[in-house]
Specification:
alpha/beta; Signal recognition particle alu RNA binding heterodimer, srp9/1; 3 helices; 24% helix
Length: 144
């Protein structure tokens, strides 16, 4: 039986390129090269029918370790809590005040990019601290 070896995470959104570029900044991802025969993604986009222009965008982990992120335009806005979300792991191996300081520093960086900090969940003896956030279109993610 063949096993799945790669995963792509897909975001429904209103402005695919804007949201993709936000996540590039969050994760250190990059925009992949445009399709063969096109000097830029803008050139490729302009080659599409008007109704498909700006409808999708992607970014990738430059190391190849993380999943490809794909952003697709949908007509409806976000209406409910995500059933799946990304955890941005900036506090791995850290505990207590040191972990919280790393999380808060990353939260401040992401707020400057347009994210929204929802709350700070402090360590409670069972779970370590984490910070629930929303991206520039309201999709939930956590800094942990």
């Amino acid at each position: 039986m063949k096993q799945v070896r790669q995963v792509q995470v897909t975001f429904d959104c209103a402005e695919p390129e804007r949201v993709a570029r936000f996540w590039c900044e969050v994760l250190g991802y990059v925009v992949p090269p445009p399709p063969e025969g096109f000097a830029s993604w803008g050139d490729f986009d302009r080659s599409l029918p008007p109704e498909r222009q700006g409808a999708a965008f992607a970014c990738v982990d430059p190391t190849g370790a993380g999943p490809r992120l794909f952003f697709q335009r949908v007509p409806e806005g976000k209406a409910a809590k995500n059933r799946v979300h990304l955890d941005v792991r900036v506090g791995t191996g850290l505990v207590g005040d040191e972990r919280l300081a790393a999380l808060e520093a990353e939260s401040a960086r992401l707020v400057a990019l347009g994210a929204v900090q929802v709350q700070v969940l402090r360590a409670d003896g069972f779970n370590e601290s984490c910070i629930p956030m929303r991206d520039i279109e309201g999709n939930e993610f956590c800094i942990d």
